């Protein structure tokens, strides 16, 4: 593990690493905006059928006139999807009528809808009338976006292992800035979905490559702290999204506000240093040496530029260079026993974490609380949750933290099933708590995955397993439909998935304070070494037990008899 020693020699976690991690983390403030944008750009305002020549004349003081045109639904609120065929003026008065309102003839909203602009001035729902029969298209837009994130995870994971982390990250910033801003100019729902799909692809490119650039430039002991602090940027970004959405309340303006800053990120990203690990493993040792010298100077260790030569660098990574000469594909994640076990377990953990997270976070209007306030609460709960996760990651390790967070989130989700619907505050509080645990699980899994996979195939592995997270985020909204069969069924599915993943997480190997593996052989050798040590300990215990038996026989006592004698 020679490269870890070189990092320590050029300053460990010094000034360069602080600047590097900070610049890579700042875009995370707007990553939450991309993933949770649908809560506000596709918000459903209060609405009813448009009444030609009448609706425009109505105001709050004469809203009772709607009674003549809009029937009441089962909850005694104006129907959203129907109107009376003929005006029923007699319904305006408070006097009892001989006519039963439920028997009056109604029709669909032929002239469209009138939307309340208190909560949302404009959303894609009000823009393209995605209500009533077209209501599924609201969730479809989020599913299409997550499909783009899924596609990006597959494509950018492999491309960055081939062409480098820095280049793919720069391109992802540019793609997100351009296409995300152009989304605001969408003339139709179809064009909007196309832009959202392409934007989702770039979001994966940003997240995957930023994580790798951080992990591959920081010392082993700093990874936990850096991973957790970086996740706080995403957390704070959720609260920023609430502020931006509340101040603008227009879906086009919101898109511009959260995508335009990526032009600035694109400009300063040229300062980043490419991963020296990746450069060496791809036969570009001279470039890697230049980056190491640059890091040494920034960290106040200029004398190391003379000590660390090309020969020193290559001697430290000779084993890794030999291994990197073979071409690695996604199939290498499943070829060897340990890599196969890691990949299969991570697939389940990534899916369930994302599945539960977006199941809770993507339908804020169902809680009956102001949607902007709810977004702030959902963001704020992540701070204590991730601080607890940081302590657990540092002292208990990755494996216990990952499993515990998933099992706790499942227990909260299950508990909410038994809370009556009229206890809205309690139900909301439990949902917020569950979201905190799933967020802590996300913090852990990003760090855990980066530490489990070796450098030669780390990005491919990250892209492969995070694919399951995208599938989970796509499936989460669809599960909500199951409440028509049984109201508690969505919670049972979300909670059951989290329980399964929590148990499987305990099968993963621990990585706390262990240097990053560079090759697949490193991973397999580490597993073999741990297995050998376990067998040695077990054999030693057997021998000691055998020795005890021999001593007991020589004294004429059976071990149990001896124990009984001692107790007596």
UniProtKB/TrEMBL annotation:
| Membrane topology term | Multi-pass membrane protein
Q: Where in the cell is it found?
A: Basal cell membrane
Instruction: Name a single GO cellular component.
Output: basal plasma membrane
Give the stretches traversing the membrane.
Answer: 143-160, 167-183, 225-248, 254-272, 342-360, 372-393, 400-419, 425-449, 461-482, 488-508
User: Keywords, A to Z?
Assistant: Membrane, Transmembrane, Transmembrane helix
Every copy of the Major facilitator superfamily (MFS) profile domain together lies at 59-513
Q: Where is the composition biased (Polar residues)?
A: 530-547
Decide whether keyword Transmembrane is in the record. Answer: yes
A single GO molecular function, which one? Answer: transmembrane transporter activity
Q: Which domain of life is it from?
A: Eukaryota
Q: Mostly located where?
A: membrane
Instruction: Name the InterPro entries for this protein.
Output: MFS_dom (IPR020846), MFS_sugar_transport-like (IPR005828), MFS_trans_sf (IPR036259), Orgcat_transp/SVOP (IPR004749)
| Coiled-coil zones | none
Residues of the region (Disordered) are 529-568
Q: Which NCBIfam families match?
A: 2A0119
Q: Give the record's family classification.
A: Belongs to the major facilitator (TC 2.A.1) superfamily. Organic cation transporter (TC 2.A.1.19) family.
Can you say what this protein is called? Solute carrier family 22 member 6
């Amino acid at each position: 593990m020679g490269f870890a020693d070189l990092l320590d020699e050029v300053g460990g976690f010094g000034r360069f690493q602080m600047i590097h991690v900070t610049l890579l983390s700042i875009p995370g403030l707007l990553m939450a905006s991309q993933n949770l944008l649908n809560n506000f750009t596709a918000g459903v305002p209060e609405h009813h059928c448009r009444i030609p020549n009448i609706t425009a004349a109505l105001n709050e003081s004469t809203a009772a006139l709607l009674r003549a045109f809009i029937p009441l639904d089962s909850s005694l609120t104006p129907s959203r999807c129907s109107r009376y065929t003929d005006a029923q003026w007699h319904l305006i008065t408070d006097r009892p009528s001989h006519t039963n309102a439920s028997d009056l003839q109604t029709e669909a909203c032929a002239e469209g809808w009138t939307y309340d602009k208190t909560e949302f001035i404009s959303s894609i729902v009000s823009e393209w009338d995605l209500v009533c029969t077209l209501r599924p298209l609201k969730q479809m837009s989020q599913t299409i976006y997550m499909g783009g994130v899924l596609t990006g995870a597959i494509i950018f994971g492999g491309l960055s292992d081939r062409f480098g982390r820095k280049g793919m990250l720069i391109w992802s910033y540019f793609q997100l800035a351009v296409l995300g801003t152009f989304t605001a100019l969408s003339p139709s729902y179809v064009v909007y979905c196309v832009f959202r799909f392409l934007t989702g692809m770039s979001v994966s490119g940003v997240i995957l490559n930023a994580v790798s650039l951080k992990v591959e430039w920081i010392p082993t002991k700093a990874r936990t702290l850096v991973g957790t602090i970086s996740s706080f940027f995403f957390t704070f970004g959720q609260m920023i999204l609430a502020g931006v959405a509340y101040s603008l309340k227009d879906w086009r303006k919101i898109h511009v506000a959260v995508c335009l800053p990526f032009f600035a990120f694109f400009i300063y990203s040229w300062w980043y240093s490419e991963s020296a690990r990746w450069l060496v493993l791809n036969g570009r040792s001279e470039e890697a040496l230049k980056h190491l010298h640059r890091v040494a100077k920034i960290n106040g260790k200029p004398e190391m530029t003379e000590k660390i030569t090309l020969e020193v660098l290559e001697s430290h990574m000779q084993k890794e260079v030999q291994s990197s000469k073979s071409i690695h594909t996604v199939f290498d994640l499943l070829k060897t026993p340990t890599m196969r076990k890691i990949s299969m377990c991570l697939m389940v953990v990534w899916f369930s974490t994302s599945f539960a997270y977006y199941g809770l976070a993507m339908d804020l209007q169902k809680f009956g609380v102001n949607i902007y306030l709810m977004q702030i609460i959902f963001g704020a709960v992540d701070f204590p949750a991730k601080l607890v996760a940081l302590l657990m990651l540092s002292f208990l390790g990755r494996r216990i933290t990952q499993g515990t967070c998933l099992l706790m989130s499942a227990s909260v989700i299950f508990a909410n099933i038994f809370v009556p619907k009229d206890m809205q505050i309690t139900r909301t509080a439990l949902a917020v708590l569950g979201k905190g645990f799933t967020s802590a699980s996300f913090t852990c899994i990003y760090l855990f995955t980066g530490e489990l996979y070796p450098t030669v195939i780390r990005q491919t592995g990250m892209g492969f397993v995070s694919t399951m997270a995208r599938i989970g985020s796509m499936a989460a909204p669809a599960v909500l439909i199951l409440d028509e069969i049984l109201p508690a069924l969505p919670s049972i599915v979300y909670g059951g998935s989290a329980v399964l993943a929590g148990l499987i997480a305990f099968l993963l190997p621990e990585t706390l304070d262990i240097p990053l593996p560079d090759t697949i052989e490193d991973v397999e050798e580490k597993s073999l070494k741990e297995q050998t040590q376990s067998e040695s300990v077990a054999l030693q215990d057997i021998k000691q037990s055998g020795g005890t038996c021999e001593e007991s026989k020589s004294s004429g006592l059976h071990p149990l008899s001896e124990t009984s004698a001692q107790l007596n």
